[in-house]
Amino acid sequence: MPCIDSSGHMTEIAGKILAAMADGTPLNEVAEKTDLPLYRIRSGARELVEAGLVEPKGEAYVLTEAGRAALANAHGLA
Amino acid sequence: MDTTTQEKDVLGFPRLGQPAPVFEAETTHGTLRLEDFKGSWLILFSHPADFTPVCTTEFIAFAELAPELKKRGVELCGLSIDSTYSHIAWVRNIEEKFGVKIPFPVIADLNKNVATLYGMIMPGESKTETSRCVFVIDPNGVLRAMIYYPLTTGRNMQEILRLIDALQTTDKHGVATPANWKPGEKVIVPPPATAEAAEARMKAGFETKDWYFSKKSL
Lengths: 78, 218
Description:
heterodimer; A: mainly alpha; Arc Repressor Mutant, subunit A; 2 strands; 10% strand; B: Glutaredoxin; 2 domains; three-stranded antiparallel beta sheet; 6 helices; 33% helix; disordered N terminus
Protein backbone atom coordinates (compact mmCIF):
# COMPACT_ATOMS: atom_id res chain seq x y z
CA MET A 1 0.00 0.00 0.00
CA PRO A 2 2.24 2.79 -1.21
CA CYS A 3 2.14 6.18 0.43
CA ILE A 4 1.85 8.06 -2.82
CA ASP A 5 -0.80 6.90 -5.29
CA SER A 6 -0.47 6.72 -9.07
CA SER A 7 -1.78 10.27 -9.46
CA GLY A 8 0.91 11.59 -7.12
CA HIS A 9 -1.41 12.18 -4.19
CA MET A 10 -0.69 11.19 -0.63
CA THR A 11 -2.72 8.15 0.44
CA GLU A 12 -4.77 7.96 3.63
CA ILE A 13 -2.17 5.71 5.25
CA ALA A 14 0.58 8.18 4.34
CA GLY A 15 -1.39 10.99 5.96
CA LYS A 16 -1.70 8.86 9.08
CA ILE A 17 2.04 8.20 9.17
CA LEU A 18 2.90 11.82 8.42
CA ALA A 19 0.64 13.08 11.21
CA ALA A 20 2.10 10.61 13.69
CA MET A 21 5.67 11.50 12.75
CA ALA A 22 5.26 15.09 13.98
CA ASP A 23 8.78 16.40 14.37
CA GLY A 24 11.26 13.75 15.32
CA THR A 25 8.96 11.09 16.76
CA PRO A 26 10.85 7.77 16.78
CA LEU A 27 9.49 5.31 14.23
CA ASN A 28 8.60 2.71 16.85
CA GLU A 29 6.35 5.33 18.49
CA VAL A 30 4.87 6.17 15.10
CA ALA A 31 4.06 2.46 14.73
CA GLU A 32 2.31 2.46 18.10
CA LYS A 33 0.38 5.64 17.38
CA THR A 34 -0.84 4.42 14.02
CA ASP A 35 -1.29 0.76 15.02
CA LEU A 36 0.73 -0.21 11.96
CA PRO A 37 3.67 -2.63 11.92
CA LEU A 38 7.10 -1.05 12.15
CA TYR A 39 8.09 -2.39 8.73
CA ARG A 40 5.21 -0.43 7.19
CA ILE A 41 6.35 2.73 8.94
CA ARG A 42 9.91 2.26 7.70
CA SER A 43 8.86 1.67 4.09
CA GLY A 44 6.37 4.53 4.36
CA ALA A 45 9.07 6.87 5.67
CA ARG A 46 11.24 5.95 2.72
CA GLU A 47 8.47 6.84 0.30
CA LEU A 48 7.73 10.08 2.10
CA VAL A 49 11.41 11.04 1.83
CA GLU A 50 11.34 10.28 -1.90
CA ALA A 51 8.22 12.46 -2.19
CA GLY A 52 10.01 15.30 -0.37
CA LEU A 53 7.50 15.34 2.49
CA VAL A 54 9.90 14.37 5.28
CA GLU A 55 13.64 14.30 5.74
CA PRO A 56 15.77 12.11 7.98
CA LYS A 57 17.04 13.58 11.21
CA GLY A 58 19.15 11.11 13.15
CA GLU A 59 17.05 8.01 13.78
CA ALA A 60 13.79 9.86 13.11
CA TYR A 61 12.26 12.13 10.49
CA VAL A 62 11.01 15.69 10.40
CA LEU A 63 8.38 17.15 8.14
CA THR A 64 9.57 19.40 5.34
CA GLU A 65 7.67 22.52 4.40
CA ALA A 66 5.98 20.48 1.67
CA GLY A 67 5.14 17.81 4.26
CA ARG A 68 3.53 20.33 6.59
CA ALA A 69 1.56 21.75 3.69
CA ALA A 70 0.44 18.28 2.63
CA LEU A 71 -0.64 17.48 6.16
CA ALA A 72 -2.55 20.75 6.51
CA ASN A 73 -4.17 20.08 3.17
CA ALA A 74 -5.14 16.57 4.27
CA HIS A 75 -6.73 18.06 7.37
CA GLY A 76 -8.54 20.68 5.34
CA LEU A 77 -6.53 23.53 6.86
CA ALA A 78 -4.97 24.86 3.69
CA MET B 1 23.69 -15.69 -18.66
CA ASP B 2 24.95 -19.20 -19.52
CA THR B 3 23.26 -22.40 -18.43
CA THR B 4 25.79 -23.11 -15.68
CA THR B 5 25.28 -19.70 -14.11
CA GLN B 6 21.51 -20.05 -14.36
CA GLU B 7 21.62 -23.43 -12.64
CA LYS B 8 23.91 -22.07 -9.94
CA ASP B 9 21.47 -19.21 -9.32
CA VAL B 10 18.47 -21.51 -9.12
CA LEU B 11 20.25 -23.98 -6.85
CA GLY B 12 21.81 -21.45 -4.50
CA PHE B 13 20.82 -21.86 -0.87
CA PRO B 14 21.27 -19.54 2.06
CA ARG B 15 22.97 -20.90 5.16
CA LEU B 16 21.84 -21.08 8.76
CA GLY B 17 23.64 -18.74 11.10
CA GLN B 18 24.55 -16.31 8.34
CA PRO B 19 22.91 -12.98 7.47
CA ALA B 20 19.75 -13.59 5.46
CA PRO B 21 20.07 -12.44 1.85
CA VAL B 22 19.00 -8.81 1.58
CA PHE B 23 16.22 -7.89 -0.80
CA GLU B 24 13.96 -5.10 -1.94
CA ALA B 25 10.68 -6.29 -3.41
CA GLU B 26 7.26 -5.17 -4.51
CA THR B 27 4.59 -6.48 -2.16
CA THR B 28 0.90 -6.09 -1.49
CA HIS B 29 1.98 -3.57 1.19
CA GLY B 30 4.24 -1.54 -1.10
CA THR B 31 7.99 -1.79 -1.62
CA LEU B 32 9.63 -3.58 1.28
CA ARG B 33 13.23 -4.34 2.14
CA LEU B 34 14.52 -7.01 4.46
CA GLU B 35 15.96 -4.24 6.65
CA ASP B 36 12.42 -2.92 7.23
CA PHE B 37 11.86 -5.95 9.48
CA LYS B 38 14.96 -5.35 11.60
CA GLY B 39 14.20 -5.66 15.30
CA SER B 40 11.40 -8.18 14.68
CA TRP B 41 11.54 -11.86 13.92
CA LEU B 42 10.44 -12.56 10.38
CA ILE B 43 8.91 -15.64 8.82
CA LEU B 44 9.50 -15.33 5.09
CA PHE B 45 7.61 -18.06 3.31
CA SER B 46 6.92 -18.99 -0.28
CA HIS B 47 3.99 -20.72 -1.90
CA PRO B 48 3.73 -22.18 -5.42
CA ALA B 49 0.97 -20.03 -6.87
CA ASP B 50 -2.04 -17.84 -6.14
CA PHE B 51 -5.55 -19.27 -6.54
CA THR B 52 -4.49 -22.84 -5.79
CA PRO B 53 -6.19 -24.95 -3.11
CA VAL B 54 -3.32 -26.05 -0.84
CA CYS B 55 -1.86 -22.53 -0.87
CA THR B 56 -5.26 -21.11 0.03
CA THR B 57 -5.49 -23.38 3.08
CA GLU B 58 -1.98 -22.32 4.07
CA PHE B 59 -2.72 -18.61 3.72
CA ILE B 60 -5.79 -19.01 5.89
CA ALA B 61 -3.72 -20.95 8.43
CA PHE B 62 -0.93 -18.34 8.43
CA ALA B 63 -3.52 -15.59 8.91
CA GLU B 64 -5.01 -17.51 11.84
CA LEU B 65 -1.54 -17.98 13.30
CA ALA B 66 -0.64 -14.29 12.94
CA PRO B 67 -2.02 -13.13 16.32
CA GLU B 68 0.06 -15.75 18.18
CA LEU B 69 3.11 -14.75 16.17
CA LYS B 70 2.50 -11.08 16.89
CA LYS B 71 2.57 -11.83 20.63
CA ARG B 72 6.05 -13.26 20.04
CA GLY B 73 7.27 -10.27 17.99
CA VAL B 74 7.14 -12.17 14.70
CA GLU B 75 6.11 -10.71 11.34
CA LEU B 76 5.02 -12.74 8.33
CA CYS B 77 5.81 -12.14 4.67
CA GLY B 78 4.65 -14.40 1.84
CA LEU B 79 6.09 -14.79 -1.66
CA SER B 80 5.30 -16.38 -4.98
CA ILE B 81 6.15 -15.85 -8.62
CA ASP B 82 2.93 -13.97 -9.29
CA SER B 83 2.10 -10.32 -9.83
CA THR B 84 0.95 -7.87 -7.19
CA TYR B 85 -2.43 -7.71 -8.95
CA SER B 86 -2.79 -11.48 -8.75
CA HIS B 87 -1.88 -11.40 -5.04
CA ILE B 88 -4.38 -8.61 -4.39
CA ALA B 89 -7.13 -10.47 -6.24
CA TRP B 90 -6.36 -13.70 -4.38
CA VAL B 91 -6.28 -12.21 -0.87
CA ARG B 92 -9.53 -10.39 -1.64
CA ASN B 93 -11.00 -13.69 -2.85
CA ILE B 94 -9.90 -15.45 0.36
CA GLU B 95 -11.60 -12.74 2.41
CA GLU B 96 -14.76 -12.94 0.30
CA LYS B 97 -15.02 -16.75 0.07
CA PHE B 98 -13.53 -17.82 3.40
CA GLY B 99 -14.06 -14.76 5.59
CA VAL B 100 -10.35 -14.52 6.45
CA LYS B 101 -8.42 -11.27 6.06
CA ILE B 102 -4.76 -11.73 5.13
CA PRO B 103 -2.85 -9.32 7.37
CA PHE B 104 0.68 -9.83 6.04
CA PRO B 105 2.44 -8.58 2.89
CA VAL B 106 3.00 -10.88 -0.08
CA ILE B 107 6.02 -10.40 -2.34
CA ALA B 108 5.32 -10.36 -6.08
CA ASP B 109 8.51 -12.02 -7.25
CA LEU B 110 7.86 -12.11 -10.97
CA ASN B 111 11.55 -11.75 -11.81
CA LYS B 112 12.41 -14.54 -9.28
CA ASN B 113 15.03 -12.34 -7.62
CA VAL B 114 14.10 -13.18 -4.03
CA ALA B 115 13.22 -16.79 -4.86
CA THR B 116 16.68 -17.25 -6.36
CA LEU B 117 18.46 -15.58 -3.46
CA TYR B 118 16.74 -17.90 -0.99
CA GLY B 119 16.80 -21.09 -3.06
CA MET B 120 13.02 -21.34 -3.12
CA ILE B 121 12.82 -22.92 -6.58
CA MET B 122 13.34 -26.67 -6.74
CA PRO B 123 13.84 -27.47 -10.43
CA GLY B 124 12.99 -31.11 -9.80
CA GLU B 125 9.52 -30.02 -8.72
CA SER B 126 8.92 -26.97 -10.86
CA LYS B 127 11.03 -24.41 -12.66
CA THR B 128 8.30 -21.77 -12.59
CA GLU B 129 6.93 -22.07 -9.06
CA THR B 130 8.44 -21.72 -5.61
CA SER B 131 8.19 -24.69 -3.29
CA ARG B 132 6.72 -24.35 0.21
CA CYS B 133 9.72 -22.82 1.97
CA VAL B 134 9.87 -21.19 5.38
CA PHE B 135 12.78 -19.01 6.49
CA VAL B 136 12.97 -17.82 10.07
CA ILE B 137 15.05 -14.65 10.34
CA ASP B 138 15.90 -13.21 13.75
CA PRO B 139 15.75 -9.53 14.81
CA ASN B 140 19.39 -9.09 13.79
CA GLY B 141 18.73 -10.33 10.27
CA VAL B 142 20.38 -13.73 10.80
CA LEU B 143 18.83 -16.79 9.19
CA ARG B 144 17.96 -19.13 12.04
CA ALA B 145 15.86 -21.91 10.52
CA MET B 146 14.65 -23.23 7.19
CA ILE B 147 11.85 -25.65 6.39
CA TYR B 148 11.14 -27.00 2.91
CA TYR B 149 7.92 -28.76 1.99
CA PRO B 150 7.02 -30.10 -1.46
CA LEU B 151 4.30 -28.63 -3.65
CA THR B 152 1.80 -31.28 -2.61
CA THR B 153 2.03 -30.95 1.17
CA GLY B 154 0.61 -28.09 3.21
CA ARG B 155 2.70 -26.92 6.13
CA ASN B 156 2.04 -27.55 9.81
CA MET B 157 1.48 -24.20 11.52
CA GLN B 158 1.87 -25.62 15.01
CA GLU B 159 5.36 -26.81 14.10
CA ILE B 160 6.24 -23.34 12.85
CA LEU B 161 4.99 -21.83 16.11
CA ARG B 162 6.89 -24.47 18.08
CA LEU B 163 10.04 -23.62 16.15
CA ILE B 164 9.67 -19.94 17.00
CA ASP B 165 9.11 -20.76 20.67
CA ALA B 166 12.16 -23.02 20.67
CA LEU B 167 14.43 -20.43 19.03
CA GLN B 168 13.28 -17.67 21.36
CA THR B 169 13.73 -19.95 24.38
CA THR B 170 17.25 -20.80 23.23
CA ASP B 171 18.11 -17.13 22.84
CA LYS B 172 16.61 -16.12 26.16
CA HIS B 173 17.95 -18.93 28.34
CA GLY B 174 21.03 -20.26 26.51
CA VAL B 175 19.61 -23.78 26.31
CA ALA B 176 18.65 -26.27 23.62
CA THR B 177 15.32 -28.02 23.21
CA PRO B 178 14.75 -31.77 22.89
CA ALA B 179 12.69 -33.68 20.37
CA ASN B 180 9.01 -32.76 20.37
CA TRP B 181 9.64 -30.04 22.97
CA LYS B 182 6.82 -27.67 23.76
CA PRO B 183 6.83 -24.54 25.94
CA GLY B 184 6.68 -25.46 29.63
CA GLU B 185 8.59 -28.72 29.19
CA LYS B 186 12.16 -29.33 30.34
CA VAL B 187 15.01 -28.06 28.21
CA ILE B 188 18.48 -29.39 27.46
CA VAL B 189 21.45 -27.90 29.27
CA PRO B 190 24.35 -27.56 26.81
CA PRO B 191 26.93 -30.33 27.34
CA PRO B 192 30.02 -29.36 29.35
CA ALA B 193 33.07 -28.58 27.24
CA THR B 194 35.82 -29.81 29.60
CA ALA B 195 36.47 -32.89 31.75
CA GLU B 196 36.37 -30.69 34.83
CA ALA B 197 33.01 -29.23 33.85
CA ALA B 198 31.72 -32.74 33.11
CA GLU B 199 32.62 -33.81 36.64
CA ALA B 200 30.92 -30.74 38.05
CA ARG B 201 27.85 -31.34 35.89
CA MET B 202 27.14 -34.61 37.71
CA LYS B 203 26.67 -32.63 40.93
CA ALA B 204 24.97 -29.56 39.43
CA GLY B 205 21.43 -30.46 40.47
CA PHE B 206 20.02 -30.91 36.97
CA GLU B 207 18.08 -33.96 35.83
CA THR B 208 21.24 -35.69 34.62
CA LYS B 209 21.39 -39.11 32.91
CA ASP B 210 25.09 -38.78 32.26
CA TRP B 211 27.60 -35.94 32.04
CA TYR B 212 26.52 -35.01 28.49
CA PHE B 213 22.76 -35.32 29.00
CA SER B 214 21.12 -32.92 31.43
CA LYS B 215 17.69 -31.38 31.47
CA LYS B 216 16.21 -28.63 33.59
CA SER B 217 12.98 -26.73 34.03
CA LEU B 218 12.93 -23.03 33.25
